[in-house]
Amino acid sequence: MSRLEARFSQLKADGKKALIPFITAGDPTPGITVDLMLELVSAGADVIELGVPFSDPMADGPVIQRASERALEHHVSLRDVIGMVRHFREQDSDTPVVLMGYLNPIEIMGYETFAAEAADAGVDGALVVDIPPEEGGELLDAMSDNGLDQIYLIAPTSTPERIQRICDAAGGFVYYVSVKGVTGASNLDLQAVQRKLQEIRSATDLPVGVGFGIKDAQTAAAVSQLADAVVVGSALVSRVEALAGEPEKIGGALREVLSSMRQAMDAT
Amino acid sequence: MPGRWPPSLLESIVSITTEKIIGTLPDAQGHFGPYGGLFVSETLMEPLEELRVAYERYMQDEDFLRELDEDLANYVGRPSPIYLARRWSEELGGARIYLKREDLNHTGAHKVNNTIGQALLARRMGKTRIIAETGAGQHGVATATVAARLGLECVVYMGAVDIARQEANVYRMRLLGAEVRSVSSGSKTLKDALNEAMRDWVTNVDNTFYIIGTVAGPHPYPAMVRDFQAVIGREAREQMQRQTGRQPDALVACVGGGSNAIGLFYPFLDDREVSIYGVEAAGNGIDTGLHAAPLCAGKPGVLHGNRTYLMEDSDGQIIETHSISAGLDYPGVGPEHAWLKDSGRASYVAVTDDEALQAFHDLTRIEGIIPALESSHALAYAAKLAPEMSRDQAILVNLSGRGDKDMHTVAAREGIEL
């Protein structure tokens, strides 16, 4: 059983929902990332989504784009990010780690090399924002050959046919983008999310996560009523940004945001 | 390249000999061999499908095509003439150089051929809001122009660096009623404007049509923009036959994203006796690394929705480009050009800022035509090519735009304050 599968089935047995924080690897400096990952786990993270910096993050809002820019000032590469996961695994062998990023750094590394090195380092899956299932066959093969799950996004614009196609290719969990827009957007409509989740659940037994637009404990709790997992990114990354000049305070700040979400989710 | 790509993609690079090209590319999924395709986030997949269906439908729709033709004739002023640059050719001493005068189009460049087409399509699709990205400002102006005429709301994204070097075009867009939004992320140029426009589109996809200005982006944009720009080459083929009794020996066009080039080249692709040259911006020189020549010095990768040649580092990060010409300052290139390069049907070369400036001055002084700095790159290569060819041969250069917008750039470069 994969780490993701084990984690989701344990949560289900405990009657809990997964909390999935996102941070960008190397933000604000490469040296701090593994410590922040461990901090997130101790604050209640069930899965960690680790952003791979990219120069042109088209699907991200300004907060996560600036995180990429800070990391790229230190030339943080995909190989470096895989190295961070390897380091994290020395201290945590249970918490699933999913990489999130764009295709080009993977293209230049080579699909097979990427999948083999990532799996060897203890990565559990990858969400490649700009590769739909139509283009994703070769990458999917390389990843499944190495036991990695490919996490796919489903959007408010996805038709029932597309939802089925995506769910058929997806592994680990599927990630519903709750708003039309980029990461960090607002105006999350819970009723619309609920309707779409019903459609998705009729297409797959995989756990369904919801992200894009979850800003606070209250929203996280509300979304956790509907979904199997709550993904929170910009709300954390904006704290990293605010404290980039005082990096020793970042861990505590992330803990504060995440544990309030954890408590609110577990209380509902 | 081998080892980097999945094998099935490598196999699909075709070596063309005498096969017909026109009408065969892209495939149904938007692939030009291994290039092109649809590399976008899930939110855009359905809107792109909607666009593809509409584009395929209306390109067969007589009423739509009649409307397009009327606008190209009466609003843009087509056909644009072919002009023999007699004195310049004589001075260079070799092949005769003909210019396809896209600079005489309404708004001063070839860009309007495409914006008219896409705006008419947007209206048929019931979209009320137009967005665009722009580098030099020519595509932004061409978009703002057609949006004004059709009464559509228009937002143009432009890099902060480009806004500073193309003030006049920014003012033109604002006069035309468009909102120009400055983009200060990344390198603050065309690629960042494109990122920002994509973000806008993802957010406002219900009522918004994104008019991409070049033959890049996700399918169907590379094919659609080519089809709207191919009027350049269709006219040129007829005009050359009529005016000179034969087709040219060589075609030359500048390549940033590559829309004016593909527009000229496409109708000639099956005329194997016609050599085809795409001219990229070598900036300070290819060996300095400060250039914008992905086909000459880049590698294949994925950016802005398609696989193509890119300017990138060894980690796959997109690197900043350098060119005196804002319209060529782009790290990618249309996927059909990538295919034409690999297949050998077209050759891609690069000229430096200095060479382009020399051609800018020469054409201005000798022919009384002030070319855009983008087009000056094509002229500079034609000036290299002509003396190597005989006097009974002919080169057709796409003079894709006029140089009025570049007065400040050229003057500043030469230490003159306007």
- Spatial strand arrangement across the major sheet of chain A: 5-4-3-2-1-9-8-7-6
Shape of chain A: globular
Gyration radius of chain A (Cα, Å) is 17 Å
Q: What portion of the residues of chain B fall into strands of 2 or more residues?
A: 15-25%
- The end-to-end distance of chain A, rounded to whole angstroms, is 29 Å
Mean pLDDT of chain A: 95
Low-confidence stretches of chain A: none
Number of domains of chain A: 1
CATH architecture call of chain A: Alpha-Beta Barrel
In a nutshell, what does this entry contain?
The complex is a heterodimer of chains A (268) and B (418). Helix content of chain A is 49%, strand content 14%.
Structural commentary:
- The complex is a heterodimer of chains A (268) and B (418).
- Chain A is α/β, with parallel strands linked by helices.
- Chain A has a single domain, classed as Alpha-Beta Barrel (TIM Barrel).
- Chain A has helices at residues 3-14, 33-42, 62-73, 78-89, 103-109, 111-121, 137-145, 160-169, 190-201, 217-226, 234-242, 250-267; strands at 18-24, 48-51, 97-101, 125-128, 149-150, 152-154, 174-177, 208-211, 229-232.
- In chain A, helix 2 (33-42) packs across helix 4, helix 4 packs parallel to helix 6 (111-121) and helix 5 (103-109) packs across helix 6 (111-121).
- Chain A is globular and about 45 Å long.
- Chain B has helices at residues 7-11, 42-58, 62-76, 86-92, 111-124, 138-150, 160-165, 167-175, 190-203, 221-229, 231-244, 259-265, 294-297, 335-343, 353-367, 373-385, 407-413, and strands at residues 31-32, 35-39, 82-84, 96-101, 129-134, 153-159, 179-183, 208-211, 250-254, 275-285, 290-292, 299-303, 305-310, 347-352, 394-399.
- In chain B, the strands form 3 sheets. In chain B, strands 3, 4, 9, 10, 11, 14 and 15 form a 7-stranded mixed β-sheet that branches. Chain B has a 4-stranded antiparallel β-sheet with strand order 1-2-13-12. In chain B, strands 7-6-5-8 form a 4-stranded parallel β-sheet, with helices on both faces.
- The longest helix of chain B has 17 residues, at 42-58.
- Residues 1-12 of chain B have low confidence and may be disordered.
- The chains are: A alpha/beta (268), B alpha/beta (418).
- At the A-B interface, helix 3, helix 5 and strand 6 of A face strand 2, helix 2, helix 9, strand 12 and strand 13 of B.
